[in-house]
From TrEMBL:
Subunit structure, as described in the record: Homodimer.
Subcellular location as annotated: Cytoplasm
GO BP terms, alphabetized: pantothenate biosynthetic process
Gene: panC
A single MF term (Gene Ontology): ATP binding
Protein name as annotated: Pantothenate synthetase
Length: 279
C-alpha cells in the first residue's frame, strides 16, 4: 500500500477517472472504517482511502485541534483491510488558497438535526467531499450509515450535480455491547464509556414507543426520551423519529414502520455522540 500526499501523485497512481473505489475518512480509524474499506474492495477496483481532518466542517468551539492525527497507525490498519492507496493531503495541498467557493446543500435536508446544532457543518462536509471526489475521481464511494444524515446529504449532492460515481452505504459497526464505533469514543473515560450505551438504548426505546403508537404524540415521546438522557447527566441535542426518505417527521409512525429512522445526538461530558437505528 502506498501513501501519497499530493493530488498530482494521486492522479499519477490512478491513471484516470473512474478507476477506483473510495473511502473518505478523517483518520483515527476503527473497525467501522475498515469495514467500509472491505466493502469498497468488493468492487474489484483499487481502493483509495483519504485521511484529512477538514477544518471547514468544524465550528470554532469544536474539536478540530484535538482531533487525533494518527496517520502511521491508520496506515498499518488500512493495508491489511485491503486499501491500495492512501491520499493524505495536508491543508496547504487541499486548500492551497482559502476555499471561498463552497457547496451549499439543500437547507431542507442539511439545516435540520445535525445541521441545526452544527451550523455550516454540511457545507463543510459537501465542500471537502466534492473536492476529494475531484481529486480521486472514484467510480464508487462508500459512506457509513452511522453518519446517516451525512450519507443522505452526500447522496443528494451527487445526484444534483450529476457526479459520475455511485454512493454506497456501509452498515454501522458496533462494539459487543452495542455502542456504535466512533473516533470520538476515544475521548470517553471508563465511566463515560459504560454510560455511552444509554444513547443507543434510548433510541431503541424511542423506536419501540413510536411504533407501538397508542395515541401518544411523537413529539411527546421524543421529549420523554431526551428527558431520560438528561436525567442521567447527558445534554441531548435531539432524539427524533424521521422518515428515511427525507428526514421529515412521519405523520403516523406506527403505520410507517420499515421506512423510518430514529436519530440522536447528545453530549456526555465534552464528547458529542451520534447514533441512529432504522425501524
Ligand atoms: O465522515 C467523515 O469522516 C467526514 O465527514 C468526511 C466524509 C471524511 C468528510 O470530511
Amino acid at each position: 500500500m502506498k501513501i501519497v500526499h499530493t493530488t498530482a501523485a494521486l492522479r499519477a497512481e490512478l491513471g484516470g477517472a473512474g478507476r477506483c473505489a473510495f473511502v473518505p475518512t478523517m483518520g483515527n480509524l476503527h473497525e467501522g472504517h475498515l469495514a467500509l474499506v472491505r466493502q469498497a474492495r468488493a468492487h474489484g477496483l483499487p481502493v483509495v482511502a483519504s485521511i484529512f481532518v477538514n477544518r471547514l466542517q468544524f465550528a470554532p468551539h469544536e474539536d478540530f485541534d484535538r482531533y487525533p492525527r494518527t496517520l502511521a497507525r491508520d496506515a498499518e490498519l488500512l493495508g491489511p483491510a485491503g486499501c491500495d492507496l492512501v491520499f493524505a493531503p495536508d491543508e496547504a495541498e487541499l486548500y492551497p488558497r482559502p476555499q471561498t467557493f463552497k457547496v451549499q446543500p439543500d437547507p431542507a435536508l442539511a439545516d435540520i438535526l445535525e445541521g441545526a446544532f452544527r451550523p455550516g457543518f454540511f457545507t463543510g462536509v459537501c465542500t471537502v467531499v466534492m473536492k476529494l471526489f475531484a481529486c480521486v475521481q472514484p467510480a464508487v464511494a462508500v459512506f457509513g450509515r452511522k453518519d446517516y444524515q451525512q450519507l443522505m446529504v452526500v447522496r443528494r449532492m451527487a445526484e444534483q450535480f450529476a457526479l459520475p460515481l455511485r454512493i454506497e452505504a456501509g452498515d454501522t459497526v458496533r462494539a459487543a455491547d452495542g455502542l456504535a464505533l466512533s473516533s470520538r469514543n476515544g475521548y470517553l473515560d471508563a465511566a463515560q464509556r459504560a454510560e455511552a450505551l444509554a444513547l443507543p438504548q434510548a433510541l431503541q426505546a424511542l423506536a419501540r414507543a413510536a411504533l407501538a403508537g397508542g395515541g401518544t404524540d411523537l413529539a411527546a415521546l421524543e421529549a420523554q426520551a431526551m428527558a431520560g438522557l438528561a436525567a442521567r447527566g447527558w445534554q441531548p441535542d435531539y432524539l427524533c423519529v424521521r422518515r428515511r426518505a427525507d428526514l421529515q417527521p412521519p405523520v403516523d409512525a406506527a403505520r410507517e414502520a420499515g421506512a423510518l429512522v430514529v436519530l440522536g445526538a447528545a453530549r456526555l461530558g465534552s464528547t458529542r455522540l451520534i447514533d441512529n437505528v432504522e425501524v
